[in-house]
Structure formats: structure tokens, C-alpha cells
Amino acid sequence: MTEKSFIRADEVAEELDVSKSYAYKVIKQLNDELSAKGYITVAGRISRQYFNERVYGAERREV
């Protein structure tokens, strides 16, 4: 199965072990950063690649 390009708040909440409402705040912050760089964003979703870069410092790879 291929990974989807975007992740939603429930996945962000699980990944960071935070509430779903806090996950929405994280997504909004990251989308605001991308928007400021000129990228198109989707409310409530964040690019998996950008999320991994900002949270882990690099693309996270499953072993």
C-alpha cells in the first residue's frame, strides 16, 4: 500500500500523542508556513513530507 501525500488531524494527533484539537493547531501553523512560501494548502491536511521535515528534521523513513 502506498502512503498518501497528505495526512489529517487524527494521524497528526496519533503521531505526536496530542489531542485532535491541538493537531489542528499544528496543521494550521505548518500550512501558514507553506502559504507564506507561496504553496497552495488544504485546510485540515498537511503534506506528509513537510510534516516529517518540520517534526523530525528530515523525511522519516519506515524501516
Descriptors:
63 residues, mainly alpha, two-stranded antiparallel ribbon, globular
**Poorly predicted sequence stretches spanning 5 or more consecutive residues:** none
* Large-scale geometry: globular
Tally of helical segments: 3
Q: What number of structural domains do the residues give?
A: 1
The span between the termini is 15 Å
Beta content comes to: 5-15%
Q: Count all strands and give the number.
A: 2
Order of helices and strands: EHHEH
Q: Helices and strands: which structural class? A: mainly alpha
Q: Estimate percent helicity.
A: 40-55%
Average pLDDT reading? 90
- What can be said about the biggest beta sheet? 2 strands, antiparallel
- How is the largest sheet built, in terms of strand order? 1-2
Q: What is this entry, summarized?
A:
The chain is mainly alpha-helical and 63 residues long. It has one domain.
Structural commentary:
The model has no long low-confidence stretch (mean pLDDT 90). The protein has 63 residues and is mostly helical. It has a two-stranded antiparallel sheet with strand order 1-2. It has 3 helices and 2 strands, in the order βααβα. It has one domain.
Helix and strand arrangement:
Elements lengths: L5 E3 H8 L3 H17 L8 E3 H9 L7
Antiparallel strand pairs: 1-2
Helix pairs in contact: 1-2
